[in-house]
From TrEMBL:
Gene3D superfamilies: 2.60.40.1190, Transmembrane di-heme cytochromes, Chain C. Residues 1-44 are annotated as: Disordered. Its main location: membrane. It comes from the Bacteria. InterPro entries: Cyt-c552/DMSO_Rdtase_haem-bd, Cyt_b561_bac/Ni-Hgenase, Di-haem_cyt_TM. It comes from Roseibium sediminicola. The keyword tRNA-binding does not apply. This is Ethylbenzene dehydrogenase-related protein.
Length: 595
């Protein structure tokens, strides 16, 4: 060493070693021996108030985003990893929490970055520290370098989550769902690694420093109030993101016409010529050639006291066979893959749903509640995916087109989401499907199912057929080409339902006339539509990989389970490709306007 004053070398002499008598005298006087380890009286490590506040706020936002994201991920067909977290995953109206927590994460990332820059704390995450890994260095220095690498991995994962999250919110799925999910798993892994690295670096005291605040040390060039400025920057980002979202919603402008279009699923009528279309990207549904995505084109026109909507969506297959029955040696079997769970994704008809709400709240007007039992005092969902209902007494008006249950016969089912209904004894006993707030409007429909499940069968064994065709050969001819592949395209004009006058009640004698291998429809058309449930008329057609649907209704039906068509309603769209409940997701509603 060198003396900074004299520039002469300093001679550091060792203190004399105590003799045995001196050592004993020191111990006798209560003084520690010179070779005894002194008490560690160094003050506990602390962190500045700004770091503690931003760190824990960001932790809460990220954990909320991860847990709600895992809940949404667990809903996907074939999900397994996210289901491992089922005991700790939240239930209920998840979408709002997921979106808002994601926006808060974005705002906090900006605030945190600004704070580190303004407070001259960027050295904490300086990439220069990584060079230590290439040099001989202490374990602590190496751990510090590894922690910096982990920080930068986190930053990359959060940016990826943000970018792909926005892209998904706008309706683009496919590979971006996988990228988003993978980035979420990286963040989840980082949380565990972050705790382990800090513990390895400084033990429990290093972890406790984020609970021990101290004033920020001043450095030259530091901003006067770095935390306040950083929080203001975060608030601006938060307000900007929310404002941008609501100010850029798509609008469906309702055109005017003098004559109603013909409801035939062909958009060549004069009424449609001045109706500007809106295109909506929907995704994360089942089937649809493995993409789970379908772009929907939507138009609307008002003719007097009527309003007509036109929808055109991508679907590569015309699917009409909803749970058909096939005769085998041991009786009639209803074809299905998950009918016992009310989650069929194979032998089902194509469907399309439109939901209208007075609010643009996330999750279809705050009507989507996720989880196996989102209502603690009501029965759970058979499929464990959740329910549709509202919690504030509001109503979501739902129009559902069902290809084989009247859709090809000019009917669209009028339904709604509202307050959960009280369950029946059959619901409580698990013998009937409880659907909470999702129910048909008052009135009747003209379709029923052509089978009864036998007790304890779960549709895996034979079922009881309700009615049989009068002439099974004539019924087969009306069904067209009978291809039981789930991706088959049913013939145009084919009829995968039986009318009442084409069938007779089941009897052993009639059954004996029908050979093994015969396939008959699983849907019966009998009775008629009535009441509020009969408010909607429609026409549909499938051609060249697209369904086109036209729907007409009174502007105001006067029924309490319908919403009047007024300026400012919000619309959500869902495509079902031969599946029961796994429709495509539409996160960002379209605003209906008559101006």
């Amino acid at each position: 060493m060198t003396d900074q004053v004299t520039d002469h070398a300093l001679e550091l002499t060792s203190p004399p070693k105590p003799t045995g008598d001196a050592r004993g005298q020191a111990q006798k006087n209560g003084s520690p021996a010179s070779n005894a380890r002194p008490d560690d009286r160094s003050p506990p490590v602390r962190s500045d108030i700004g770091t503690i506040l931003l760190h824990w706020t960001l932790v809460v936002a990220i954990v909320t985003s991860l847990l709600t994201g895992l809940r949404l991920s667990s809903d996907a067909e074939g999900a397994w990893f996210s289901k491992l977290f089922e005991p700790i995953l939240p239930q209920g109206e998840i979408w709002t929490w997921h979106y808002l927590s994601a926006v808060f994460v974005l705002a906090l990332i900006f605030a945190y970055a600004a704070y580190m820059s303004l407070a001259r704390l960027k050295r904490r995450i300086s990439s220069k520290k990584m060079v230590v890994l290439t040099l001989p260095a202490s374990t602590k220095l190496r751990l510090s370098a590894v922690n910096v690498i982990a920080y930068w991995i986190l930053f990359g994962a959060v940016l990826t989550l943000t970018a792909t999250g926005v892209w998904l919110y706008l309706g683009h799925g496919g590979i971006w769902v996988t990228v988003h999910y993978t980035a979420a798993l990286v963040v989840l892994t980082y949380i565990v690694a972050h705790v382990v690295l800090h513990y390895a670096y400084g033990g429990l005291q290093q972890l406790l420093r984020l609970f021990r605040p101290q004033k920020l040390r001043r450095f030259p060039g530091m901003a006067a109030h770095p935390l306040a400025i950083a929080l203001m920057i975060g608030a601006v980002v938060l307000a900007g993101a929310i404002t941008l979202n609501y100010s850029t919603l798509d609008e469906l402008v309702v055109a005017k016409a003098d004559v109603l279009p013909e409801l035939d699923g062909v958009l060549d009528d004069a009424a449609w010529q001045n109706a500007e279309p809106v295109f909506v990207e929907t995704q994360q549904g089942s089937n649809l050639k493995g993409t789970g995505a379908s772009t929907v084109e939507m138009r609307a026109v008002q003719v007097g006291d009527k309003i007509v909507f036109a929808f055109r969506w991508e679907d590569a297959t015309r699917s009409l066979k909803r749970h058909p029955l096939v005769k085998r040696e041991d009786g009639w079997h209803m074809l299905n893959n998950r009918a016992d769970l009310s989650d069929e994704t194979a032998f089902y008809e194509d469907k399309f749903s439109v939901a209208f709400s007075t609010t643009d709240a996330f999750g279809g007007g705050a009507s989507t509640h996720m989880g196996p039992k989102p209502i603690s005092d009501k029965p759970k969902a058979f499929h464990g995916r959740g329910f549709h209902y509202t919690t504030d007494g509001s109503l979501v008006d739902v129009w559902q087109w069902k290809a084989s249950r009247g859709g090809m016969l000019g009917r669209v089912d009028d339904m709604h989401f509202s307050t959960p209904v009280e369950p029946s004894e059959a619901h409580v006993a698990g013998k009937a499907r409880y659907s909470a707030g999702y129910n048909a409007d008052k009135g009747t429909s003209f379709y029923v199912y052509n089978y009864h499940k036998k007790d304890g069968s779960d549709y895996l064994s034979s079922v009881d057929a309700i009615r049989l065709p009068k002439d099974y050969k004539a019924t087969a001819a009306k069904m067209g080409t009978i291809d039981l592949s789930v991706e088959a395209i049913e013939d145009e004009g084919s009829q995968w339902w039986m009318f009442e006058d084409e069938s007779v009640p089941y009897s052993s004698a009639k059954d004996a006339e029908i050979p093994v291998g015969t396939v008959i429809p699983g849907v019966l058309i009998q009775g008629e539509y009535s009441g509020s449930r009969a408010d909607l008329l429609g026409g549909s057609k499938w051609q060249d990989g697209y369904w086109t649907l036209e729907v007409v209704r009174d502007m105001d039906t006067g029924h309490d389970q319908d919403l009047a068509m007024t300026d400012g309603l919000f619309i959500w769209l869902s495509v079902f490709d031969h599946n029961q409940t796994r429709h495509t997701r539409h996160s960002r509603p379209v605003r209906l306007t008559f101006n």
